[in-house]
Amino acid sequence: MSQKIPFDLDTSLQHVRAGGLPLRAQMRLADEAGPNKRLFTSDLSVSEFLLVEESRARPISQVMGSSIYHIGVVADYKGGGEQIYEITTLSEGHRESRRKAIARLFQEAQIVGADAVVGVRLRERMITMGRHGKGGDDGGEVIEFTAVGTAIQAPWITHKPGEPVITDLSGQELWALAQDGFEPCGFVFDFCRYHVWHVLKDWTAGVGGEVKTALDAIERARQAVEQKLEAQAARFSAEFVVGSDVKIDIHEVPCGWEGCQLNDLDVDVSWFGTAVRRVPHYEPPEHPKAPALILSMMPLGRRKGEEFEDEEDEVAEKAKEAEEEALEEDGKEKGE
């Protein structure tokens, strides 16, 4: 039997505050990494599991990391001289929630002695929305970021001892890369929020046309994130970034100034990907083989994840309604 870690809530909280894992998580992973382990949990599908095995890797445990992050008060940022600018407090808050979740996933993979983590599923949701108004934000925005994946042992993946490689590659993608002599070398990600003050201020006369400030904000946000990803990939000595998941979210927000009829615009760009490079001294097989045909079963009822999507939509809608009600009430108070 693996040695049990004595549980104490205060000690567990101290571990978390220091950037470590809760004691319960350490106890679970100690059992999973122990010599008497007989069963592992995984978030891999049947086809992913079989192809991971085909790529000379062995799944050993399901690992996860999460962060519930409260973004602090944002100072007056509306109409502060420029019409388009990054709200750095919000950008950094989202980045930090991702860093903490991925760091905890990494620590869990370290404990079980993994070489890499594959099949990472990422989920972000807003728990509460900050109340916009008076040119700033009240700091009420709370977000949750979660990463869940499967730790594997794959001796052919080169990495520093005790530093497993995090990826969002599926089992099929890992197999395909391995067949052609590529290996994952790191997980790259970034987030950026740009703000456009009075996005339609040039159309107050009712004249239509392309909203160039909105297009400019999207391009600036995308380029800012892309540059950070390229820098991260360079630190991993990567040749390519594959499996990029790029999300651009654009939404109008109230200006917040008393009596102002013009809205502002928020542009969020979120980007994830896996850095890859050639396996050192790779020699292609003389007779490469294709994977066996694997048929997926027809899903019955709701698909995996749909319940979470519904929940996220409902929370976002309620947050929007709450924000609009707060603005109306603020306007009434000023009218009195």
Could you walk me through the main structural features you see in this protein, from its secondary elements to its overall organization?
- It is a single chain.
- The longest helix is centred in the C-terminal third of the chain and has 30 residues, at 306-335.
- It contains seven helices and ten strands.
- The strands form three sheets. It has a four-stranded mixed sheet with strand order 1-6-3-7. Strands 2-8-10-9 form a four-stranded antiparallel sheet, sandwiched between helices. It has a two-stranded antiparallel ribbon with strand order 4-5.
- Strand 4 (132-133) and strand 5 form a beta hairpin.
- The chain has helices spanning 9-17, 23-33, 46-54, 88-111, 171-179, 212-235, 306-335; strands at 58-70, 84-86, 116-128, 132-133, 136-137, 142-153, 165-166, 182-196, 240-254, 263-278.
- 35% of the residues lie in helices and 28% in strands.
- It has 336 residues and is an alpha+beta fold.
- The chain starts with 8 loop residues before the first helix and ends with a helix.
- The model has no long low-confidence stretch (mean pLDDT 78).
- It has one domain (14-199, 209-279, 305-331).
